[in-house]
UniProtKB/TrEMBL annotation:
Keywords: Isomerase. It holds the Pfam family MDMPI_N. One of its GO terms (molecular function) is isomerase activity. Residues 15-156 form the Mycothiol-dependent maleylpyruvate isomerase metal-binding domain. NCBIfam families: maleylpyruvate isomerase family mycothiol-dependent enzyme (TIGR03083). The keyword Secreted does not apply. This is Maleylpyruvate isomerase family mycothiol-dependent enzyme. Residues 172-264 form the MDMPI C-terminal domain. InterPro entries: DinB/YfiT-like, Maleyloyr_isom, MDMPI_C-term_domain, MDMPI_metal-binding.
Length: 273
C-alpha cells in the first residue's frame, strides 16, 4: 500500500472499532457500567472514559482540572496517573452522559480525521503524559486503532459480548503486538543468544511466527519456519491478545521444548503498559 492508503486503512480500522464500542455500550443498563474489566482497576465505565479522554485530547480539548486520589492501587507510575486523571474525573458521570459524550467525540474525531491535512510521515504530538513526544502521523493512527480495539475487547469480555476478533483493527493489533514481541523475549525474558521461539496462533486470526535471538542478544521476528525451536507456544488468538496485553489469566497454552525458558517467556509476554 502507499502511505496514503495506509493512513486510510488505519483510519477505517479505528472507525469500525470505536463505532462498535459506541453501539455496544449505548443500550447497557446502569449496573453493567460498573462491571470489572480485565484492564487493571477499570470498570466498563472507566474503559469508555479512557477512550473518550484520549480522543478528546487528540482533538485539542483541555485536560480536566482534577485532584486524583493517591490511594488507587493500580496507579503506580506517573504515566498511569496521567491516564487515570480524566478517567477518575468521569466516575461521577451517568451512563447517559458517557454515551452522549462518546457519540459526540466519535463524530468530532471522525470529522477531524477526514479533514486532516497531515502527510503520513509528518511528526505529530502523541499524548503520553510526562513522556509526550512526537511520532509520524501514520503511526499515531496505527496506535489509536490498536488501543481502541484492545479496549473494545476488554469491554466485550466484561459484558460477555464477543465479536470483532478478526476485524480490521484486530489485524492492525496483530502487527503491533508481533513487532513488540522480540524485545519481550530477548530482553525481558532473557532468552539466550541463539534462541528460536515459534508462536503458533489459531482461531479468527491465524499466524505462525519465529522469534530469533542473535549473537548480540537482539530479537527479531519473521515468518520462516524453525524445524527445531527451543520453545514452541501454541495458543488461540484471544489468548495471545490477553497474554500480550497483560489481561487476567488467559486460556491454555501448549508448550513444547525448554519448559524453564518457556515459563520465563510467558511470564514476560505482556508488551503493553
Amino acid at each position: 500500500m502507499t502511505d496514503n492508503q495506509t493512513v486510510q486503512a488505519y483510519t477505517e480500522a479505528w472507525t469500525q472499532s470505536i463505532e462498535s464500542i459506541s453501539e455496544l455500550v449505548a443500550p447497557l443498563p446502569e449496573d453493567s457500567w460498573n462491571r470489572a474489566t480485565e484492564c487493571p482497576g477499570w470498570s466498563v465505565r472507566d474503559v469508555v472514559s479512557h477512550v473518550i479522554a484520549i480522543e478528546s485530547e487528540l482533538l485539542g480539548d483541555p485536560r480536566p482540572i482534577h485532584s486524583l486520589p493517591r490511594d488507587l492501587r493500580h496507579v503506580t507510575t506517573e504515566f498511569a496517573r496521567y491516564i487515570e486523571l480524566p478517567v477518575d474525573k468521569r466516575r461521577c458521570h451517568t451512563s447517559v452522559e458517557l454515551v452522549g459524550e462518546l457519540e459526540y467525540t466519535v463524530i468530532r474525531r471522525s470529522r477531524a480525521l477526514r479533514n486532516a491535512k497531515h502527510t503520513p510521515t509528518e511528526q505529530v504530538r502523541w499524548p503520553a503524559g510526562p513522556h509526550s513526544r512526537e511520532l509520524p502521523y501514520h503511526e499515531l493512527l496505527r496506535r489509536r486503532a490498536f488501543d481502541v480495539w484492545v479496549h473494545e475487547q476488554d469491554l466485550r469480555r466484561a459484558l460477555d459480548a464477543p465479536g470483532n476478533l478478526d476485524s480490521p483493527a484486530a489485524l492492525v493489533s496483530r502487527d503491533v503486538l508481533l513487532e513488540l514481541l522480540p524485545r519481550a523475549v530477548a530482553h525481558r525474558a532473557g532468552a539466550p543468544a541463539g534462541t528460536a521461539l515459534v508462536v503458533d496462533v489459531t482461531g479468527p486470526v491465524e499466524f505462525l511466527r519465529t522469534v530469533r535471538v542473535d549473537a548480540g542478544g537482539l530479537g527479531t521476528v519473521d515468518e520462516s519456519i524453525s524445524l527445531a525451536p527451543d520453545v514452541q507456544l501454541t495458543l488461540d488468538w484471544e489468548t495471545y491478545v490477553r497474554l500480550a496485553c497483560g489481561r487476567g489469566r488467559p486460556g491454555p497454552v501448549t508448550v513444547e521444548g525448554d519448559q524453564e525458558l518457556a515459563s520465563r517467556i510467558l511470564a514476560n509476554f505482556s508488551v503493553t503498559l
